[in-house]
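Lab notebook, entry 215. We have the chain sequence and a SMILES string for zinc ion, and the next step in the workflow is to get a structural model of the bound complex before anyone spends time on docking refinements. Request logged below.

Task: model protein plus zinc ion, output structure tokens.
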Amino acid sequence: MGSPEFWGTLSPEYASCNGRNQSPINIEKTVRAELSPIEFKYTPGAYELVNNGHTLQVNFRQGSTIKIEGEEFALKQFHLHAPSENKIKGATFPMEAHLVHANSAGDLAVIGVMFKIGDANPTLEKAWDELPLLKGQTASIAGHFSANGLLPRSGEYYRFNGSLTTPPCSEGVRWFVMKESMTASHDQIEMFSAALGGHHNNRPVQPLHARLVLE
Ligand SMILES: [Zn+2]
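Result returned:
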């Protein structure tokens, strides 16, 4: 896929990568707003873990949803980045989970959860029970866990508009980055990086341009 700064020139379909509402961002200046809580209804639907060479992705069956701003979005998958893609007040975290949801129109809502090094995360432990170590490998998940174990206790979040962080970098993605971070063990983060051949999989932060970050 080449180096992120050249994605916009690789092919016409990647032109969005040069857009003005790109992710990730550094969450620095924010505007106080009355944000309504995200209503999570996650059920045990994880069924497979895919190593696509860029990340490890856990796919979910239908049944896990969130309600935000009056709209329902279905959880499709979560995947990880090490180190984090978004930054909070300039700080990078060792890892960031992206929980990717879509509504009936196909619009995306991504919830970002930061991970610090600490206690092992039990949900990641289950997910990586049979870690596919090679690009293109898929492992089926027997335990069918939910994504609840990736969510911090506090429901507070930062809200902004952005994009996919890999080509085609499509914009119009609603982003919600949770303020409270979770922990994963050093080993868990190392195992994740090792499965990707030891390289970082974070796109650098992109300019904010005219966007506001709400909190
Ligand atoms: Zn991502």
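Notes for the group: The mean pLDDT is 95. Worth checking against the assay data. The CA atoms of residues 158 and 215 lie 5 Å apart.
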